[in-house]
């Protein structure tokens, strides 16, 4: 299976993808939009995308892309995010002057970096890309913050492991496919969907009451602006599923209160982190 990811090989998305499908061929994409283009063009069979980090929150762009494209969520997984300081072989921690990584990773290692006054944090486009960059340049005064996989992939040396400030650092990933190719889960217990309501009093309340009326547990809701339509919003929601009948009934009832409803996926909730 060819799985598209956003980012360089060795990224956390790469790690999540091989946890889902160890024998998969990884198709790296420069930007998130290219991941969805690869699915639609048939150059990838599936994609693994981060959707939410337990500390940094949602990846808003990916929600927007799920709504825009004819894809669906097949499954979800959780990955424990472990940050590591990675340098060229033979380098020492005392030599490091510059530390490259994605801004989110740098922010999640703030306490470690504060204890290293000789190091300057430098934002970079990708965690694994930072390791690729310093290894290509063989810069012994630079380090990257990335996964163990990145160190292994590019031949880097881990100078300090597990440098994240908070151990409760997890990212939720979706495995997505073109909607026509999704393999239905026979025992789904979770639904993700998007909906919009008319801008008048009570419409959002009426929509939310649908979930209560069906006895479903709404576990997450978030709003995103509708591009080109100021002050209008799309609501993204996850709810726990007791049965397929209840999921279908909830969708039918939502359609009575919403101007748009799109089910993004019906799948089994992840129960443990890799």
Structure description:
This protein is an alpha/beta fold and 274 residues long. The chain folds into three domains: 2-80 and 170-181, 3-Layer(aba) Sandwich (D-Maltodextrin-Binding Protein, domain 2), CATH 3.40.190; 84-161, D-Maltodextrin-Binding Protein, domain 2 (3-Layer(aba) Sandwich), CATH 3.40.190.10; 190-267, 2-Layer Sandwich (Alpha-Beta Plaits). It contains nine helices and 15 strands. It has helices at 12-20, 32-41, 60-68, 103-108, 110-114, 127-137, 148-154, 203-213, 244-257, and strands at residues 2-6, 25-29, 46-53, 57-58, 71-80, 84-87, 98-101, 120-123, 142-146, 157-161, 170-178, 190-196, 217-225, 233-240, 260-267. The strands form three sheets. Strands 1, 2, 3, 4, 5 and 11 form a six-stranded mixed sheet that branches. A five-stranded mixed sheet has the order 8-7-9-6-10. α8 runs antiparallel to α9. The longest helix is centred in the last third of the chain and has 14 residues, at 244-257.
Question: How would you summarize this macromolecular structure in one to three sentences?
Answer:
The protein is 30% helix and 34% strand. It has 274 residues and is α/β, with parallel strands linked by helices.
């Amino acid at each position: 299976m060819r799985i598209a990811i956003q980012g360089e090989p060795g990224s956390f998305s790469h790690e999540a993808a091989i946890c889902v499908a160890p024998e998969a061929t990884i198709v790296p994409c420069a930007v998130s939009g290219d991941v969805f283009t690869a699915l639609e063009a048939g150059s990838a069979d599936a994609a693994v995308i981060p959707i939410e980090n337990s500390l940094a929150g949602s990846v808003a762009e990916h929600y927007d892309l799920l709504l825009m494209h004819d894809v669906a969520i097949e499954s979800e997984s959780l990955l424990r995010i472990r940050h590591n300081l990675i340098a060229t072989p033979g380098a020492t921690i005392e030599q490091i002057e510059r530390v490259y990584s994605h801004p989110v990773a740098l922010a999640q290692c703030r306490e470690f970096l504060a204890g290293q006054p000789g190091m300057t944090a430098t934002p970079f486009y990708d965690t694994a890309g930072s390791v690729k960059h310093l290894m290509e340049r063989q810069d012994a005064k630079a380090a990257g913050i990335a996964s163990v996989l990145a160190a292994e992939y590019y031949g880097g040396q881990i100078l300090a492991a597990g440098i994240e400030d908070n151990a409760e650092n997890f990212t939720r990933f979706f495995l997505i496919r073109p909607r026509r190719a999704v393999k239905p889960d026979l025992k789904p217990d979770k639904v993700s969907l998007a909906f919009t309501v008319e801008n008048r009093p009570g419409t959002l309340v009426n929509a939310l009451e649908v979930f209560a009326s069906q006895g479903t547990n709404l576990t997450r809701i978030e709003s995103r602006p509708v591009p080109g339509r100021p002050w209008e919003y799309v609501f993204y929601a996850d709810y726990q599923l007791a049965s397929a009948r209840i999921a279908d009934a909830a969708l039918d009832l939502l359609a009575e209160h919403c101007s748009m409803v799109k089910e993004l996926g019906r799948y089994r909730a992840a129960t443990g982190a890799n």
